[in-house]
């Protein structure tokens, strides 16, 4: 109720009373005048005074009645407002009571969930692999998951994820998304991991980075490390960048972040080389007076460099099986993740025997004195290896990280080059480390064709090897390789042209058009391929760019 309405009411009452008092006063005065005139015995004056009296009496009565009507109307209006206020007060009290009850119930649920989560953790800590323990944990977590508790959603998602089935990954993804949107930092990190590997969702590196960044900004150490790791190795469509990797590693106390930070200091990747700091992070004891990497002692390095610049030619045309025939010996080169520095090299030998009658090329490889026959498919200047695994050295600065890893050989580009009357076979090996579920480091090979008489024992320098092995980056970039359900096809155009993108099984019978033949402007392009329903086997990704045909082989696991 407004205070002004009360003031108006008081004013109206006062006006009415004043009018009434004025009416009484005037009435008395007029009566006195009439009495006096009557006493004068003058009829004319008496009649006039009588008329004036009646008129004044009528006016006073009208004022009084009007005031009473206004008072009545205002009283009704005020009563209505009072009733409205009373209703609103009752409603507010009722809502406040309900809200308090809801808050009490919510608080009780939260308290119950704290207890339930503690109980669930007790059973999980007993034995995560015990079905009975897992069942009890799920029993305690379920009501809290249903009530929307973010921590319970996170724990339940992790229980789904350890089952490692697609259906359970989907359930885990849905719960992690709910938990992450409520601000649970660990859920944000786990969600990034699922996007990174395409588990329970479509493979999406941009969303993986988005959720890793959200968690890292809230000081989650694993998220900051995960961001650094993606930039360190340049997975998929993420551009390799040591500087960005170091930036995120420095923000993390995660043990592996410190490890990779030490590796970067040791080699001088993205930062000035500092063996002292490398020792600090790696817990090692390298001699800081020694060079981290020493080139082999080579004769005529300048001559080789000049020869590479002036005489090197590569067979841009298709490399034939007949050209591959012979014994090729040289080195397998292990590069850093930017593919610019040779970190290690081991002897590598290929023995290829071509049967012209059957048009079959039989290949045997020798790596670290281990010989094995290699089954492969050749397409243009690419080789696809069928179920070939080899053990390759891995530089490790920790006893907890193996120095030898099993690599699955996936494919290789090959090229034949001429240098100083020598024929070289060069190529890039694409590998996959099953234990880590990720691509191996960039690996290249430089092999010289063996002749009957050797005219030189000269060894090529690492600089010369790197120059010889260097090939243009593949026009088509595929990730992951091999793939299970999701595949990303990426390429860049330096000039506007018409393009078409397809994926076909190796025998060419089933073709799927990823992008129809249309014009595209200069820029980088990425396409998502849903490969869930593709049968396991070998596939060829083809991109027609103008009149040029580019192909890459990939395997569906």
Walk me through what this model shows:
The structure is a single chain. The chain is of the alpha+beta class and 557 residues long. It has three domains: 1-147; 303-469, Lipocalin (Beta Barrel); 477-556, Immunoglobulin-like (Sandwich). The protein is 46% helix and 27% strand. The chain has helices at 3-40, 43-126, 131-146, 150-161, 166-181, 185-197, 205-217, 221-233, 242-249, 255-267, 275-282, 301-311, 321-324, 462-469; strands at 313-314, 326-335, 342-355, 360-367, 370-374, 376-379, 382-393, 404-419, 422-433, 438-439, 443-449, 477-479, 486-493, 497-505, 511-520, 523-530, 537-545, 548-556. Strands 1, 2, 3, 4, 5, 6, 7, 8, 9, 10 and 11 form an eleven-stranded antiparallel β-sheet that branches. A hairpin with a 2-residue loop joins β6 (376-379) and β7 (382-393). The longest helix has 84 residues, at 43-126. It is elongated, with a radius of gyration of 44 Å.
Give the count of helical stretches.
Answer: 14
Estimated helix fraction: 40-55%
What gyration radius follows from the Cα positions, in whole Å? 44 Å
The beta-strand count equals 18
Structural class by helix and strand composition = alpha+beta
**CATH architecture grouping of the largest domain:** Beta Barrel
Q: Alpha-carbon distance between the termini?
A: 77 Å
The averaged pLDDT comes out at 80
Low-confidence stretches: 1-10, 289-315, 453-457
Give the domain tally: 3
- Please report which band the strand proportion falls in: under 5%, 5-15%, 15-25%, 25-35%, 35-45% or over 45%: 25-35%
- Can you identify the CATH class of the largest domain? Mainly Beta
Main β-sheet description:
11 strands, antiparallel
Q: Tell me, briefly, the overall form.
A: elongated
Q: Find the CATH topology of the largest domain.
A: Lipocalin
Keywords: Signal
Domain Secretion system C-terminal sorting: 478-555
Pfam family, one: Sel1
Protein name: T9SS C-terminal target domain-containing protein
